Amino acid sequence: MANAGIQLLGFTLAFLGFIGTIASTVMVEWKASSYAGDNIITAQAMYEGLWKSCVSQSTGQVQCKVYDSLLQLPGMVQGARGLMLSSILLSFISILVAVVGMKCTTCMAEMPEQKDKVALAGGVIFIIAGLFALVGTSWYGHRIAKDFYDPFTPTNARYEFGSALYVGWGAACLVVIGGGFLCCNCSTKGSGKAPRYPASHSAAPSGRDYV
């Protein structure tokens, strides 16, 4: 039952990370306008995400615009889109696979060894999905930091990390940790069998009688 508890914990963490990955992907605050340095314009705040950009006025009014063309987007945005969507797709597949392989479900109950392999496969896919999300958010964050510290970037055109990046980093870690727990499948084969030792020849009867 300890194995089943670890699997259930891993699945729960990975599922929460899956929800967080979806939330991070659709959020618009991937990068937010910075007020550091000489930028003292506080009447509005600008945010950019993977799908649209928004401007928030000091009055509370928010105006958003969806990106018009996919081909005109920077490669960073296109790459982050692909990585995050791939992470979501792989996480969904791994959820289906892990449900079949977990010990707390009745699927494939008559084949425990195959069931463990299915759970292991689900955990591995979860880890790959988490790494995709981690790479996508880290790549985007690296470009933000690079542009921020670039002396040729205008002060009013600098951005900082948005809340979506922090959500994405946390979600990716949850998915990877959950997948690791699913992979921690302590085998119990042979626990109910007596240990086998090599035959000893010292106690074997010689078959000869000496006078």
Automatic annotation (TrEMBL):
<dbReference type="InterPro" id="IPR004031">
    <property type="entry name" value="PMP22/EMP/MP20/Claudin"/>
</dbReference>
<dbReference type="GO" id="GO:0005198">
    <property type="term" value="F:structural molecule activity"/>
</dbReference>
<feature type="transmembrane region" description="Helical">
    <location>
        <begin position="161"/>
        <end position="184"/>
    </location>
</feature>
<comment type="similarity">
    <text>Belongs to the claudin family.</text>
</comment>
<keyword id="KW-0472">Membrane</keyword>
<dbReference type="GO" id="GO:0005923">
    <property type="term" value="C:bicellular tight junction"/>
</dbReference>
<keyword id="KW-1003">Cell membrane</keyword>
<dbReference type="InterPro" id="IPR006187">
    <property type="entry name" value="Claudin"/>
</dbReference>
<feature type="transmembrane region" description="Helical">
    <location>
        <begin position="118"/>
        <end position="141"/>
    </location>
</feature>
<dbReference type="GO" id="GO:0005886">
    <property type="term" value="C:plasma membrane"/>
</dbReference>
<keyword id="KW-1133">Transmembrane helix</keyword>
<keyword id="KW-0796">Tight junction</keyword>
<protein>
    <recommendedName>
        <fullName>Claudin</fullName>
    </recommendedName>
</protein>
<keyword id="KW-0812">Transmembrane</keyword>
<keyword id="KW-0965">Cell junction</keyword>
<feature type="transmembrane region" description="Helical">
    <location>
        <begin position="83"/>
        <end position="106"/>
    </location>
</feature>
<dbReference type="InterPro" id="IPR017974">
    <property type="entry name" value="Claudin_CS"/>
</dbReference>
<comment type="function">
    <text>Claudins function as major constituents of the tight junction complexes that regulate the permeability of epithelia.</text>
</comment>
<feature type="region of interest" description="Disordered">
    <location>
        <begin position="190"/>
        <end position="211"/>
    </location>
</feature>
<dbReference type="Pfam" id="PF00822">
    <property type="entry name" value="PMP22_Claudin"/>
</dbReference>
